[in-house]
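Hello K.,

You asked for the raw outputs rather than the summary table, so here they are, unedited. I folded two proteins back to back in the same session to keep the settings identical. This is the first:
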Amino acid sequence: MDKYIIVFCEGDHDIAFLTRILSVNGFLPYMKKVKEFVKPLKDLYIKNLSNKKIEDFEFKFQRPKIKVPYSVFIKDNTLVIFHNFDGDGNILNDGANSIISMYISLNKENRRKIEKYEKLNYRFLYFLDADKEGVENRLNNLKESLDLDELNHYEITNKNDDEFGCYIFYDDLDPNTYGKLEDVLLNIMKPNNKDIFEKSESFISNNTLATDRQRKFICKNLEEKYQGNPQFKEQKSVISIAGQLQFSGSSNAVIIANSDYIKKDDILNNSHCQNIIKLFE
């Protein structure tokens, strides 16, 4: 391999969208078994997997294990490795830095080996929502976290022997560049499926639950109670309702990955998608 692109994502929705962009641009799923991966990644992942308990793999109830790739794609001599962090806080609060160190340490260890393998050339990419912080604040947070002098939106910068880049999802209609992945998705999905998405939005507006009922419900033999913060996100629910017409009972990640609400021409003609693919070139 000539290059290893390590991708840090907030969640599986991001990964589903990014892999659709990659697929349209000639990338393919990397179907090899872990034991068939190139050294030293093979040994690294086998070690990380061997340290897990069976209950760690209960997908419905456990967070993803960030030291193990969530998905891997390949094109020519470039391998793209996705890590799912289950939230922006887990990326920005040194979580991604620990994964960067994990990969960079492989090259450091290689220098001490008698039987050496080829040096791994890395590019580390971050994908985050602008949210209410905005694109510029996200960029500044990343620069500080990575100790970089410069980091521009959807451009590659260098630090030592490694490359870094990022893409911040924002709403095209927001003059302050706030927003999130769902803004991008709905701007792609809705125009050619207007009736379906308008009816999904109408259903939500006519059936909104009280805030208490948007929280996790604990049901035990001695008590019933609501717990935690409200979990309702209108845009996620719109995508989910529309997606159930095609993939009953499936998550938004499955809908984003497989629905014909996003087609090849949508990706090729969307500015977000075109700026994103530049990061993988």
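The second followed immediately with the same parameters:
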Amino acid sequence: MVKQWFLDRLLESLNDESIPENFKDFVKAQDMENENISKMIDANPRILFDVFDEHKVYIEILVDYKKPDVTFTYTVINDDTMYSNPSHYNNRIEAEKEAIEQAFQMLNNKL
């Protein structure tokens, strides 16, 4: 599902008259390797938020900046369920990675 979402967005981005047809054909012939998608997600997990949004699974990252050390928590929501994680993370990316794992579980339960 994630691989197809990225491929669809890539193909949509080619709908531009300024891009030569031979380049469009070349890109369409390429296969997106799971390993490459995995690297993109590890580097920037929030790129998956749009995937989840399209499937009505929403991730909310909350920031507590009132304490001396800023902490992050998350909530994941879909039509039937809301999951609020009581854990606190020292940085946003840790919270995002955990939220994405929870979002995948909720998405799989919907399918």
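The domain at 45-111 is CATH 3.30.160.20 (Double Stranded RNA Binding Domain).

Happy to rerun anything if the numbers look odd on your end.

Regards,
P.
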